[in-house]
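Pasting two entries for a bug report.
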Amino acid sequence: MPSFVWDRDPQEAMDNPYEYEAQNQFTREAEKILEKFSDELKVYDMKFTKNDRSKEKAIWLLQNDSLDSLRDILLLLKQKKHKTAGKLFRDINESLDLASYFHSDTTESAKKLNDWYDDKIIPHSVYREFIKKTIGEKQASALAKYYSNISKFNHRTYKVLLYSYVLGKDDLLAYDGYRESDILVLPQTIAMYLALLADYIKFFSIELADKQLVNMKIIKDIMQGSFEKESVKRRFVPVKRIHGRS
């Protein structure tokens, strides 16, 4: 059975951050999964030429880029370097959403694909507009809201920066990076980011299958084969929030 971190809500993780053994189990499982995903994508090495402008090549490039970001996030969080790790979540969104857009194979996406090969930037708003036209306003609005929230890591909003500060006596702030030791790094921040990473790995696995680079059965076998036999049990009863406060 897998670590319960795979299905953990990021806010709950932040409220109950001291499940270190379960988090360690998650990192072990995630490392195996991401390594095996990498092996599957290596099948496409030496199959595309430099001048190939196909959507298949674009999807492969973008998914490789996303996978590298996932692996980097995991490594950085193991080292408690959450500041850099947080900035990579939006990168994954942009790469996978762009791959989805190219995969749609519409007249407009084909034009944008050529623009992309010509080294032009395709804004994420193009994908959101595509979702609005093909799926609906509600889904496009939800996507825009999520993208806005995840972008706060990159734009370094006040709340995001506070994830790097310990609150001391009289609400005085201490920066978690002012010493060489990582002892001041907030466990809440690491726990929340690991839960986010779990969601992104699952999202990536679905995208791999949906874009047909890796068969869904292979993906399921990779996931199941990487999970440990016994789930590490919770050490603490989750704290429930009342009116937005712990």
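Entry 2 (this is the one that rendered wrong in the viewer):
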Amino acid sequence: MVGALLLVPAAGGVAVATERGRAMTIEGTIRLAAGAENALAPGDRLIVKIFHPGEGVEMDPKYQIETDFSLPMAFRIAPPIDMNANARWPDYVVEAFTDRDGDVLSMVAGELYARTPRALALGTAEVVLDLAPHGP
């Protein structure tokens, strides 16, 4: 499914759209960082976000919200696409975080967070996002 955020089971065999022979997704595994095993609370949601890092602005952010999840969890995520089924940029940042308060635009105490260290090219695989407590 082109242009959709896809979270697939580890054994899932979902066909992936390509742009000029290149996968239009970033994929990997979301897991809990060491010491964060007891940090999940009943009712926590898992948010997976993709965006292009503009100059001080997140360009075309897209969110996938999961209410029923278990970690570790495989993910495959695609960016928004244009009318020609092409991604607007060649690289994207992927974030994963838990949400307790129903607000995906801010973090509160107890929520967990992980992010790719830099923008990754579409087609990147084997990304590992370790969810850890967010904040000071």
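Dev reply: Rendering is fixed now. As a check, the viewer should reflect this: DSSP finds no helices and eleven strands in the chain.
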